[in-house]
């Protein structure tokens, strides 16, 4: 069963269409990464899932329930980390978590939750004195209260140092292993690539891609990227590369020519042969397509 089912969802603010006819579903127990550039509509979608914003049209179901009619139930069963999490400056980190435990009628150990995100040392300090990253860590601990069936994390990596980011990653995996569904938005592509079972990429409120990172790579037919360092890019080189059947894309940046081609030894050899024949080629790097490439391809190239 789907934990989240979004059908033809649209949200307009005056002339701005923040989300446009969006449909997607997230399976129970899945780690789902929601990607998109600034202003793509990620937060607006999340806000509609939790009934903080009303859709212009379309519907969202969470745990099979209508997000608007059953919002209280849904929020009770979910752990939320949303933009603009309100901090009470006079309360300590532990008191924030204790308050959430009380509100949710849960029986967690606040110290254990704070330890999971590396907050033990500062648990007794007032949140007013916390750094941005400490506030974010505290908000993550609060989201975990009550072992929620669904974690909705809007940009959870914001402000976290590499250690915090690693803890977050481990934590997301552990929560999914326990059976929780995790839906998180992020700009940190490596974070998403490391943990997400599937991702969706949003651009101008529209879904431009959905699937596993591997699926998206295959869709793009960009198994391998070869970067050619040349001394002066010539039309002969570009034409030669573009006529190869195994080449899907050729991009130029200064003296580097980036070639996306089939992931076969023969394809790589043919690309390097063309480059060698131009006489100005002096080095190359081969790398597998990463999520960064997929993201750029689905967003920048289509704008
Ligand atoms: N309350 C609002 N009133 C008017 N426009 C809004 C409102 N909320 C969002 N928008 C607009 O809707 C679009 C989508 O915004 P949203 O915050 O959902 O994007 P996002 O993908 O979360 O961006 P970011 O990564 O920058 O947080 C933007 O053009 C934004 O300006």
TrEMBL record:
<dbReference type="InterPro" id="IPR017871">
    <property type="entry name" value="ABC_transporter-like_CS"/>
</dbReference>
<dbReference type="InterPro" id="IPR027417">
    <property type="entry name" value="P-loop_NTPase"/>
</dbReference>
<dbReference type="Pfam" id="PF00005">
    <property type="entry name" value="ABC_tran"/>
</dbReference>
<feature type="domain" description="ABC transporter">
    <location>
        <begin position="4"/>
        <end position="229"/>
    </location>
</feature>
<dbReference type="GO" id="GO:0005524">
    <property type="term" value="F:ATP binding"/>
</dbReference>
<dbReference type="InterPro" id="IPR003593">
    <property type="entry name" value="AAA+_ATPase"/>
</dbReference>
<keyword id="KW-0813">Transport</keyword>
<comment type="similarity">
    <text>Belongs to the ABC transporter superfamily.</text>
</comment>
<protein>
    <submittedName>
        <fullName>ABC transporter ATP-binding protein</fullName>
    </submittedName>
</protein>
<dbReference type="InterPro" id="IPR003439">
    <property type="entry name" value="ABC_transporter-like_ATP-bd"/>
</dbReference>
<keyword id="KW-0547">Nucleotide-binding</keyword>
<keyword id="KW-0067">ATP-binding</keyword>
């Amino acid at each position: 069963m789907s934990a989240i089912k979004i059908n033809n969802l649209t949200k307009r603010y005056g002339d701005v269409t923040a989300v446009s006819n969006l449909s997607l579903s997230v399976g129970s127990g899945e780690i789902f990464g929601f990607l998109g550039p600034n202003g793509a509509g990620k937060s607006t979608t999340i806000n509609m899932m939790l009934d903080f914003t009303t859709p212009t049209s379309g519907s969202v179901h969470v745990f099979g329930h209508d997000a608007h009619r059953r919002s209280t139930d849904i929020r009770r069963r979910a752990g939320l980390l949303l933009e603009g999490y309100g901090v009470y400056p006079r309360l300590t980190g532990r008191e924030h978590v204790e308050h959430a435990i009380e509100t949710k009628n849960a029986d967690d150990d606040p110290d254990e939750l704070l330890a999971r995100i590396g907050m033990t040392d500062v648990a007794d300090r007032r949140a007013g004195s916390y750094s941005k990253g400490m506030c974010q860590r505290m908000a993550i601990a609060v989201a975990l209260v009550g072992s929620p069936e669904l974690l909705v994390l809007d940009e959870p990596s914001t402000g976290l140092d590499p250690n915090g980011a690693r803890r977050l990653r481990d934590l997301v995996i552990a929560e999914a292993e326990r059976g929780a569904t995790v839906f998180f938005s992020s700009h940190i592509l490596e974070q998403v690539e490391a943990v997400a079972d599937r991702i969706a990429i949003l651009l101008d409120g529209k879904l431009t891609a959905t699937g596993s990172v591997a699926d998206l790579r295959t869709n793009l037919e960009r198994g391998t990227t070869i970067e050619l360092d040349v001394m002066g890019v010539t039309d002969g080189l570009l034409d030669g590369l573009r006529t190869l059947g195994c080449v899907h894309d050729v991009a130029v940046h200064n003296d580097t020519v980036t070639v996306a081609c089939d992931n076969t030894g023969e394809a790589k050899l043919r690309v390097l042969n063309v480059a060698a024949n131009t006489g100005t080629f002096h080095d190359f790097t081969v790398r597998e397509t990463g999520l960064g490439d997929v993201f750029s391809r689905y967003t920048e190239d289509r704008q």
